[in-house]
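::Encoded backbone::
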Amino acid sequence: MTDNRIEWARKKDELVGAVKQLGFPKELGEQIAKQLGSPKAMDRMLAYLYNVKPRTAELIVDEMLAICSDIDSWHNKKAAEEANARYNEILYQNWENDGKSKENGVKF
């Protein structure tokens, strides 16, 4: 197994253990780990479980959904920033080419 898979497996086991310790079935912890997908997201969930100690499965699932939503928002923000950077690069290249074409008398 690669280091990433080992880390993911450790975090999954820790998350399942924390969910079981709160009195919920291990299957809930396994599904939450699967949905969260990354060790960093599982760390956020573990912090919630250790600090809040939710009493219902609904609260745990609600927090999982909030973490997933945050991750999706971050991905969308990064995609928009990348698209904006590319757009600005194209504008800058066109602006540079426009200046050179005027100097040479060439029109685009």
